[in-house]
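agent: user wants the structure for ABC transporter ATP-binding protein from Microbispora bryophytorum subsp. camponoti. delegating to structure tool.
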Amino acid sequence: MAWRASRRLTIAFAVLSMLMAVLPVTIAWCTKLVLDEIAGGRPGAGVTAALGGVLAGCGVLTALGPQIVQYVKDESGRRIGLVAQDNLFRATERFVGLARFEDPAFLDRIRMAQQYGGATPGMVVSAALGTARTAMTGAGFLISLATISPWMAALVVGAAVPSLAAELWLSRRRAAMLWGIGPVERREFFFGELLVNVQAAKELRLFGIGAHLRGLMNAQRRAANAQRSRTDRRELGVQAVTATTAALAAGAGLLWVLVSAANGMGAIGDVALFVAAVAGVQAAASGLVVELVTAHQQVLLFGHYLAVLDAEPDLPVPARPRPAGPLRRGIELKDVWFRYSPGHPWALRSVSLTIPYGSAVALAGRNGAGKSTVVKLLCRMYDPERGSVLWDGIDLRELDPAELRARIGAVFQDYMEYDMTAAENIGLGDLAAMDDQGRIEAAARRAGVHGVVSGLPRGYDTMLSRIFAGLGEPGLGEAGAGEAADTEAGLAGAGLEENGGGVGVHLSGGQWQRLALARAYLRGERDLLILDEPSSGLDAEAEHEIHQGLREHRHGRTSLLISHRLGAVRDADHIVVLDGGQVAEQGTHTGLLAHDGIYAHLFALQAEGYRQRGDRNADAPRDRLSEAR
Ligand SMILES: Nc1ncnc2c1ncn2[C@@H]1O[C@H](COP(=O)(O)OP(=O)(O)OP(=O)(O)O)[C@@H](O)[C@H]1O
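agent: tool returned. relaying tokens verbatim.
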């Protein structure tokens, strides 16, 4: 990944690291030679000056080197981070369904991958080079030390081995601890987000639950802190023992060399070299431990990143999918059984229903009956556990999900409100039309939101957000993971310059819903239009307008409408009533009223609401109900 992110930086990082590795040994040897020259009483001006020059050069490099290495390391880390992030999210796009995003353990993995995946490759490269650098420095000092005392060299190395083993064990424990506290940290993050979330703010204030949620957030942090403290204390204990052992070995060696020098058994330069070498070997040994442990721990954490990258697809996609041709006959659910996981109850039980080509089918039923679940299966967000969903007789499992979805236009019950411009909010419905102002406006007009959007401060370019300041700019576009994303144009495109500039605009619930509808309309005449509660947030007039539009629009088109407002579904060609995950009844509006089952009951209850005794024109709806019957 480092190589792919930037070859030049990786090479520069490697070369600089090696240069920094030989500096301390060069300085120690030059110092020894200068001291020996002086102590020997025969200093040659040329030699001393040359050694002095080398020492001065090394001094400059020692002063400058770390900053340059740090810059190269950071720059390289930034680029690797971008590649890693792109790879990670590319991998999450491979999950064509929703199940992975509802699996808490997998969400923890994604969070760990996000947290460590971006930084890890850079840190591993840096730790690997750091290991090579400290190993080189250490080897240089070790050889120097061995020229004075092979025993001392062996003693210092011997003292470092247990330390390395202990640190590797500790790093494994730390990685396990970080994985263990993952869910706790995710909950802490959730409560933290909630406390500053504009949508949650109303309830938080009205119910006065801010302090309660803060308490829950702090409890998560305390639990995580307790685990971290325990790990830190364990590390402190182990490191105290290994550091003391190393210090005792160095002290014993120093004593020995001083006694030898005092007895005339060594040159003054040897003492200086010995002191530098012992300190150098020990610094290299502990540096080596730190670098190796960092790399080891990062590699362990990187496992989560790889686990996401290597995760099996959540839904099998055929190697050679059958083409999802234009709908000709219709869509059929055939004896479909589905539950969200083996631990969940059945959401659909032996559901069989048909959406014939060119007809408008409506789904009705109480909350939790399974209506939205049918929608998710039609878009192949999940596969049925038993039975099948057929597109013109072909099982959805045999089609390419992307091709299938390209044939569907949908407004989901839990539609998205993107913190982007109004044009982008609509344009995301069909990226090909993102820059086609004409098409975007036409879709907005059809959804009855053009008037609102054109009245905004910057019309279609107004940022619809309260979480991002500024009036918005087009996004980064196609800037890839490569170096292009670093350009100034890229940053300006991301609207970074405008941060803190203006005010974002927030729409009302119904206006957002109309935008979601416009997003679906932008997709044009797709083979299947799914509308899951498309007008729940609209005022009566708007709802009437929308349904009127839909009636005209869906003529001769295949559509599936879900609505609790049964007045909106009565015109459907066919109404399917679900109850407890099963098809309870189906037929036309009049047929179902005559059947006097669930539909008739729900319809009567709704109609009842409009004809309270004493209301003006109270009889009008009753007349309509009798008419309907
Ligand atoms: N992601 C999910 N994971 C687990 N269970 C789910 C999930 N989504 C829905 N369910 C369950 O599946 C059942 C059917 O839900 P579904 O959303 O399809 O009902 P619905 O008929 O659309 O309800 P509503 O009218 O309230 O929108 C419910 O019991 C619900 O609790």
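agent: one observation worth passing along. Residues 2-179+237-310 form a domain with the ABC transporter transmembrane region fold fold (CATH 1.20.1560.10).
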